[in-house]
Amino acid sequence: MRVAGFEQPGGPDVLRVLDVPAPEAGPGQVRVRVRAAGVQPFDLAVREGWTPPGTPDGFPRVPGNEFAGTVDQVGDGLTGLRPGDEVMGNCRLNAYAEYVVVPAEAVTAKPAGMPWDVAGGFPAAVMTPHIALEEMSVGPGDTLLVHAAAGGVGAVAVQLARIAGATVVGTASEANHDYLRSLGALPVAYGDGLEERIRDAAPGGVDAALDGAGGDALEVSLKLVRDRNRIITLVEHARAAGLGVRTTPDKRSSARVAQAARFYAEGRLGLHVRAVFPLDRAADAHREVATGHGRGKVVLTLPEGGQGDVA
């Protein structure tokens, strides 16, 4: 099969289309013919040399930790999944590929009306905010501050918090304020005076904060949220413990994706895809994510036919 991977860490240019043996589904596993794979900062860190916990060393290494596609092999001992089922799921590596093998519990059904590019970027985009909001106990009557609210994770966090009954204040560039209003958030611009603008938007105070920006945004959150246990940073991992704030624990599950998929099917949750690249342009997809700008997700797509169809 063909994958987008690298033989040594480095910048985006190390990503190449490589030919590698296709994996086979073992007991309790499914093999999925990938139609789309989301691209996110996690993958950039892998490409730069970070090895996620619990993953093997060695090269070539294939990034990608979320995908959507069609089941094409079912391992021994499995019921409930069949070849041809349209699914989406999570893994730590290997999603930038024509085929990926994962435990059956790592996938959930793709809603029939969901486009493949949206499905490819959906699992990770919903997983992180779903866990974070649960950890911070965000619910009715709360005011949640979301930094980088127009991004893929931030926009989903806004919507999930609104579904949970919370008021949401979202920071973003002014070009994205109408977008945030459409999601139900109160938009606030970045820059000098951020703390005062947030206080004006939330005169009753801020109960919890999800930091997807770091730097000054996190500093402002520390001033606004009384209980630091209700601050989660997605970017300032090295500083979190010293500041007494939290990072998102690894509590991934397909049940979280399935619940969000139901919200999508009901028209209560959307995911914006801002850029789509073919597999052989994975380097360009990484460059786009590295800009740190823009609404929604960046996604790689693969044609339906499987092997040999990627130019």
TrEMBL record:
Pfam families: ADH_N, ADH_zinc_N_2. It comes from the Bacteria. Gene3D superfamilies: Medium-chain alcohol dehydrogenases, catalytic domain, NAD(P)-binding Rossmann-like Domain. InterPro entries: ADH-like_N (IPR013154), ER (IPR020843), GroES-like_sf (IPR011032), NAD(P)-bd_dom_sf (IPR036291), Quin_OxRdtase/zeta-crystal_CS (IPR002364). Keywords: NADP, Oxidoreductase. The keyword RNA-binding does not apply. Residues 10-300 form the Enoyl reductase (ER) domain. This is NADP-dependent oxidoreductase.
